[in-house]
Specification:
Chain lengths: 257, 257
C-alpha cells in the first residue's frame, strides 16, 4: 500500500504535466494510443519473462518515435496515425494473449490498475523515471510552451520545433508506461486529460492551469488509492472517478461564480 | 550613402512542385528604416516570400541574405519580428495570458535551460507598453478582441527587440475603426522607434497611403518603388488582371449625408 502511494504520487505529478501539453495541442488521444502500445509492451514482457515495465517503456518510446515520423511526413493525418497505432498495438497484445493463456489474471491488473502488485523494483523505476520526466518539463518549459502555443512562430524564431515535439512525445511515452501499473492501460489517458480540462475551467494562464491540474491529479490519486484500499476497488477506476467528480465540481463552481 | 541592407534577395525562385512556380527570379533589397508594403493577388506568392525570409521555406533557386549574411549563416533570428496572418483567429481556448504570450518573444533569445532575467522582463514590459496592452497582462489572449490580439502578437514580436517587423495581412479580422489606429501605430514604430516595417496586404489603398515603398508581387516582381508612382492602372492590370480598377473610397462624411 505504501509503495502504491509513493508510485501513485509520482505519477499524479507527471501525468497532468504531460497531459497539459497534449490537451492544448489537441492531441489528447496520444495518451490513450501510447497506453495501448504500452499494453502490447506489457504482453511482450510477460511472454518473454522480462519486467513488463521495461518492455512497455521500450515499445512506447519506439512507437512515439514512429508516430512523430509519420506525422511529420504528412502522408497521413495526425489523428489517423494515432488510430493506426492504437488499434495496431491492441491487435499485437490480443494475439500474444491468445497465444499464451497462462498470465491472463496478471494482465487484468495492467488493464485497470492495481495497488497490490507494485514491487519494490517497480517503485524505484517509476519514481526515477517520473523525476526525469518532471525535470525535463521544468527545464524545457519555455520551449514546450512556445511550440505548443504556435509551432510556426516558434520555428520562425529559430527553435528546433521537430526535436522539441519528438522530446514531448518521448516524455509522454515514458509517463504513460510508468503509469499503467497503478492506473491501468484503459484509464491512464483519463488521468492525463481530466485534471487538465478541470483546471482549464478556471480561465487562468498556462502556468497556473498547469499547477492546478497537478493539484487536482494529486487529490484524485490520493483519494482514489484510499478508496481502492479500503473498499477493495480497482485503483484506476477509483482514481479516475475522483478526477471526474473534481471536473463536475469545477464546472458547477465556475458557472456559479 | 544608402542605408544598410537588411534583407537582400537575389534571383530567388520557389516552387512546391516543378510545374507550378510560386516565385520566379525575385530580386530586391529592403534597407534599414524602410516602411514597405507588399501587395498582390491571392496565390501570388506574398506569404511564401515572407516564409522564405523567415527561413520557414527554402528557395529552390537564388540567394537570400539577411543583415549581410547568407541565410545559412544567419543565426540572429530575434532581429526579425514576425506577426503571422491568423493571429486574430488564433485558438480562443488556449490557456495563455497576454504576459505569457509576449514572453515567448524572448524565448529564442535565451538558450535552452536559460531562465528569464531582469533584462528580459524589462524588454517584455516595454513591448507591452508601446503596444498599449499592459493593462491586459493577466487576461487570457482568447478573451481579447481581434484588434487587441493583433497588438499582443506585435508586442510578442517587439519583445525580441527586432530590427525588422514583418506582418502578414495584419488588418484581417480587425474592424475598420481600429484599422486607422493600427496603421498609425505601425507608422510610429517605423518613425519613432526606427523599426524597419514590412507588411503584406490585399488592401491597395492602405498600402499606397500608409507605406513609404511598395512591392507588387504576382509570382514575379511587377513593381518596386514609391506608392504614388507605381499604383497606376497599368500596374494594377498586371497584378490583378484586365478588369481591375482602382475606385476611390468616398469619405465617411459624404456617406453620412
Amino acid at each position: 500500500m505504501i509503495r502504491a502511494f509513493e508510485a501513485g504520487i509520482a505519477i499524479a505529478i507527471v501525468a497532468p504535466l504531460i497531459g497539459m501539453f497534449l490537451v492544448v495541442r489537441r492531441y489528447s488521444l496520444m495518451a490513450d494510443t501510447l497506453a495501448h502500445v504500452s499494453f502490447a509492451g506489457v504482453a511482450i514482457g510477460l511472454l518473454l519473462k522480462i519486467n513488463p515495465i521495461f518492455s512497455a517503456i521500450g515499445l512506447s518510446v519506439i512507437a512515439a518515435f514512429g508516430i512523430e515520423s509519420l506525422r511529420n511526413s504528412r502522408r497521413i493525418f495526425g489523428e489517423s496515425v494515432l488510430a493506426l497505432f492504437l488499434s495496431g498495438s491492441l491487435a499485437v497484445a490480443v494475439i500474444i494473449l491468445s497465444l499464451s493463456d497462462g498470465f491472463n489474471a496478471n494482465l487484468f491488473s495492467y488493464l485497470f490498475g492495481s495497488i497490490s502488485t507494485v514491487s519494490r523494483g517497480d517503485l524505484w523505476v517509476i519514481v526515477a523515471l517520473a523525476v526525469i520526466v518532471f525535470l525535463d518539463v521544468v527545464f524545457l518549459y519555455k520551449e514546450l510552451f512556445f511550440t505548443s502555443f504556435d509551432s510556426e512562430l516558434a520555428q520562425a524564431s529559430g527553435l528546433p520545433v521537430k526535436a522539441i515535439n519528438l522530446t514531448m512525445v518521448m516524455l509522454a511515452a515514458v509517463a504513460v508506461a510508468i503509469s499503467i501499473r497503478i492506473v491501468g492501460v484503459l484509464l491512464i489517458g483519463a488521468l492525463m486529460v481530466i485534471p487538465v480540462i478541470s483546471a482549464m475551467q478556471y480561465g487562468r494562464g498556462f502556468r497556473f492551469t498547469l499547477i492546478l491540474s497537478v493539484v487536482f491529479s494529486l487529490i484524485s490519486v490520493i483519494v482514489g488509492l484510499f478508496a481502492s484500499y479500503y473498499l477493495d476497488l480497482a485503483s484506476g477506476g477509483a482514481i479516475v472517478l475522483v478526477a471526474l467528480i473534481i471536473f463536475v465540481l469545477s464546472l458547477i463552481f465556475v458557472k456559479k461564480s | 550613402m544608402l542605408p544598410e541592407p537588411y534583407i537582400e534577395l537575389d534571383n530567388v525562385s520557389f516552387s512546391y512542385d516543378k510545374n507550378t512556380p510560386v516565385l520566379e527570379n525575385l530580386s530586391f533589397t529592403v534597407r534599414k528604416g524602410e516602411y514597405l508594403g507588399i501587395i498582390g493577388p491571392n496565390g501570388g506568392g506574398k506569404t511564401t516570400l515572407i516564409k522564405i525570409i523567415l527561413g520557414l521555406l527554402h528557395p529552390t533557386d537564388g540567394r537570400v541574405a539577411l543583415f549581410g549574411k547568407d541565410r545559412h549563416d544567419f543565426k540572429e533570428k530575434h532581429r526579425i519580428g514576425y506577426v503571422p496572418q491568423r493571429v486574430t483567429q488564433a485558438d480562443k481556448n488556449f490557456p495563455a495570458t497576454v504576459l505569457e504570450v509576449v514572453r515567448t518573444g524572448r524565448t529564442a533569445r535565451l538558450g535552452f535551460f536559460q531562465k528569464f532575467t531582469e533584462k528580459d522582463s524589462v524588454a517584455v514590459e516595454h513591448a507591452m507598453e508601446i503596444s498599449g496592452i499592459s493593462r491586459y497582462r493577466d487576461t487570457l489572449v482568447g478573451n481579447l478582441s481581434g484588434g487587441e490580439r493583433q497588438r499582443v502578437f506585435i508586442a510578442r514580436a517587439l519583445a525580441s527587440e527586432p530590427d525588422v517587423l514583418i506582418l502578414d495581412e495584419p488588418t484581417v479580422g480587425v474592424d475598420i475603426g481600429a484599422q486607422k489606429v493600427f496603421y498609425d501605430f505601425l507608422a510610429s514604430l517605423n518613425r519613432d522607434h526606427n523599426l524597419t516595417v514590412i507588411f503584406i496586404s490585399h488592401d491597395v489603398d492602405a498600402v499606397s497611403q500608409e507605406t513609404k515603398t511598395v512591392l507588387c508581387l504576382n509570382h514575379n516582381l511587377v513593381c518596386h518603388g514609391l506608392p504614388h508612382d507605381l499604383l497606376n492602372e497599368h500596374v494594377l492590370e498586371r497584378l490583378y488582371g484586365k478588369h481591375a480598377k482602382r475606385v476611390a473610397h468616398l469619405p465617411a462624411k459624404l456617406l453620412e449625408k
